[in-house]
Amino acid sequence: MKRPARLLVTAALLASSSLAAAEIRVGVIVSSTGPAASLGIPEKNTVALLPQTIGGQKVTYTVLDDASDTTAAVTATRKLIQDNKVDVIIGTTTTPASLAMIDVVAEARVPMISLAASEAIIKPVDARRRWVFKTPQTDAIMANAIVAHMAQNRIKTVGYIGFNDAYGEGWLSELQRAAAARNIRVVAVEKYNRADTSVTGQILKIVAARPDAVLVGASGVPAVLPQKTLNDRGYAGKIYQTHGVANADFLRVGGKDVEGAILPAGPVLVADQLPSTNPTQRVGLAYTQAYERRFGQNSVSTFGAHMWDAGLILQKAIPAALKKAKPGTPQFRSALRDALEGTRNVIGAHGIFNMSATDHLGLDARSRVMVQVVNGTWKMIK
Fold first, then answer.
1. Could you report the per-residue pLDDT of 233-279, keeping only the tens digit for each?
2. According to the model, what pLDDT value does residue 22 have?
3. Cis peptide before 92 (omega within 30 of 0)
4. Most CB within 10 Å of its CB: which of 5, 83, 138, 324?
5. What are the helix (H) ranges across the chain?
6. Helix 302-322 crosses helix 281-295 at what angle (to 10 degrees)?
């Protein structure tokens, strides 16, 4: 081969290599099977709606299922970092697994956007958590809304039954804090496992304490069991759930057993009931329409919208990072972390995100509404 030809081939190879390096790789971990599947499936579905190019660069999404298992989530995180060389990770669905992933992403210096609720995932923003962000409202934001509703309805005592894991512990802590501030007494505390098929013993103890209301600190379909058991035992007080149940599967599986449940939720759940002045209505309706066109009427949930919001945040952060470094490099991942932390005024389906060095969520009270299950559907409490 003549020298000019060799030079042309070399130049073409270099150009090809440069283009390949420009690809942005996004790793996604969700719980699309196991006890948290009713949350993880809409998250997985929403990935198909995310943009294929951002900032003029191709985006590739690699989606893994952790089967609602903490160990599997950690294994998936290592695989995405070591084998797929991802620039950012979105996930996972549950609080315990998200907490377990923190050390892995911090060591690898890869930014992560969690889809789980607990405030402990992002606070305090220390050397490990500086690489971790999230899109769901914290249990603290939502607990304040629940207890405010309790106070407005003159509830003086409350019972609690929740998951025997980090999610349940976080909600118990926030309930106790918010209730104490409003002179509401927590008179009974019980726990159960996500896979349990009976909570009769726990519910009997709660009913015996005669609380004015009960909060179920659980998520997804497993949250139906305590409310059903309370109804079966003739409990007549108010029953509150967390925003971890805001999907169609909870309504489908619970049926009449979850009628009357009161909970805080992201505004996307009732986007069509929001006033036109609400800044999130347009985004929430756009997501709902896109999701339901692809996956069926009334299939949308707040959990898929957390993935949608992560995509919106990346659409703003990635172009900023691209000005400083090329994808696939440590410099790009660091620049992307900085850009995520600098997120300002991103209007999502759940609220308006304004992150900072001390707040890797950036949502406020505008990210929640109170809803009630009425005739098998969600009705906003005004």
1. 999 999 999 999 998 999 999 999 999 999 999 999 999 999 999 99
2. 76
3. yes
4. 138
5. 3-21, 37-47, 70-82, 95-108, 139-152, 166-181, 200-208, 224-232, 248-254, 281-295, 302-322, 330-341
6. 110
